[in-house]
C-alpha cells in the first residue's frame, strides 16, 4: 500500500456497529463487560479507547512499525521513553535539541539520577566517545530544531545495535512522509502529533511507534500506568488531519524550497539553514535518508540585532508570530526567547541560536504571498 493510500486507510475500518466510514468519537470512559474479563477489547479509556486505537494503528502503519501509542502531548511521549530508564542510566542526545526536551531531560529526569550528555551528532565519532557502560538510550532529532542539522540515523543505529543501546528518533520535522527512522535502524520513533501530523494547529498530542513486542509492552505499561493519554476528540481530529498529510507535505516542501532560496539571496539575511541546499552540513545524508527537505527554515540577520528580529516578526501580515509549527498556516518564532529559552544563553550561542535567529514554518498558502510578506518585512528593518 502506497503512502497516500495508507494515510486514508491504514489501520482503519468502517465502524462495525453502524458502518460509518469515518472513525467515530467514542466519548466514553468505560465499557460493558458480560462477565469479569469478558469484553470486546476495551475496559477503560485510559487503557484503550476505540478512537485512539484507530489512530495508534494508523500511525504505526505510516512509520512501518507494528505498535503505536498516543499521549496527551509530545513531551508526554518523551517522558514515557525516559521512564524506561532507572537511576544511574545515561542518555546521549544531540546538542541542538528542542528546548522542551532539553528542559525535561536536565530539569526533570536528571534530578532522578539519570545522566544526560549532549554532543554534536552530525559527527558519529563524538557519539562513540560519549558512550559508557551505563549508556542506555541515544536520543536523536533530525532535522534538528532550530538549526536544521541532519543526523545519520543508520550510522547511529550501527553504533547502538552492537552495544544493545536503545535508539529513539524524534521525527516531528520530517514526518513519515519524508523519513522512516525504524527502517534506518531506530527502535522508537517519536512524534509531536501537534505539528505536521494533525496539521491544523488544533490538537496537542504525542506518539511513539516501535516494532519490538517486548519494548511495546513496556511502553504500553507506562502509558496505562501514567495515564498521560489523549482523548477521543483529539484522536478524531488527528485522524482527520492525517488523511491529507501527503498533500500538505508536498506543498510544505515546495513552499519551503522557494522561501529558503529567496532568503538566501536577500542582502539583509546573514545565514539560512535548510537541509535542501547542496552546501548544508550533511546534505548528502538528508538526500539519502529523506524523500524531500521539508518546510522548516531558520535564518539570521546581518548585524545580529534582536531588535531587528523582533521588528521583522511583528511586521509580518501572513506569517503568524506564535509557538509551534507544522500547521497549514505559516508561522514564525524567535527560538532564543521562545522555544529554546530554557537552554542557557552561552549554549545557545555555541549552537548558532543567536539573537537574530528566526525560525519559519512555511505553510501551504500561495507561495507568492509568502515571499511578498517576507520581502516587505525585511524592508522594514
Short précis:
Helix content is 37%, strand content 15%. With 381 residues, the chain is of the alpha/beta class. Strands 1-7-6-5-4-2-3 form a seven-stranded mixed sheet, with helices on both faces. Strands 8-9-12-11-10 form a five-stranded mixed sheet, with helices on one face.
Key descriptive features of the protein:
single chain, 381 residues, alpha/beta, Aspartate Aminotransferase, domain 2, Aspartate Aminotransferase, domain 1, seven-stranded mixed β-sheet, five-stranded mixed β-sheet, 14 helices, 37% helix, globular
Report on this model:
The protein is an alpha/beta fold. The protein folds into two domains: 3-242, Aspartate Aminotransferase, domain 2 (3-Layer(aba) Sandwich), CATH 3.40.640; 245-379, Aspartate Aminotransferase, domain 1 (Alpha-Beta Complex), CATH 3.90.1150. Helices cover 37% and strands 15% of the residues. It has 14 helices and twelve strands. The strands form two sheets. Strands 1-7-6-5-4-2-3 form a seven-stranded mixed sheet, sandwiched between helices. Helix 6 links the parallel strand 4 (135-141) and strand 5 (166-170). The longest helix has 20 residues, at 245-264. The protein is globular. 48% of the residues are buried. The model has no long low-confidence stretch (mean pLDDT 97).
